[in-house]
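Aim 2 progress update. The chain analyzed this quarter is reproduced below.
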Amino acid sequence: MAAKISHADVEVGTELPARSFPVTRATLVRYAGASGDFNPIHWNERFAKEVGLPDVIAHGLFTMAEAIRVVTDWAGDPGAVVDYGVRFTKPVVVPDDDTGALIEVSGKVAAKNDDGTVRVDLTAMSDGKKVLGMSRATVRLA
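Predicted C-alpha cells:
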C-alpha cells in the first residue's frame, strides 16, 4: 500500500475528518486479551477505585491506537505513519453501562516538510477532557 493523499495537495491547516470511537467494558476485555495487558484497573471497578481512579479506565495504548486511526484512514495506508507519539494526560473512564465512553479525535496538518512528509497534530477528547497531549504523527504522503 501507499498513501493515497498527495503531498502537493495538502496545506498547513488542512483538517482531517474527525472520528468518534466508542469504548465499552467489552471493548477493554477484548483489547486486554489481544495485548496481554490484564491490569485490573482496566476491568475491575472495585480495584480501580481502591487505587484512586474514578472507575475502570481504558488502556493508554488502546486510546493512542484509536487516535492514530484518524491519520491512517486519511492517508489511506497505516505504513505511511513514520513517527507517532503522545503524552497521556487524562484517563478515558469507561462506566459499566450500555453506552461506555467515547473517544473523539480530530486532526490538522501542522507542518509540511520538504521531504514529502507532514506533521499532523491530533486532539483526543473524552467526556470533555483532553486525554492525549502532544499527540503528533509524521506521515509520508504520495
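The chain has a mean pLDDT of 97. The first strand starts at residue 15 and ends at 23. These observations will guide the mutagenesis experiments scheduled for the next reporting period.
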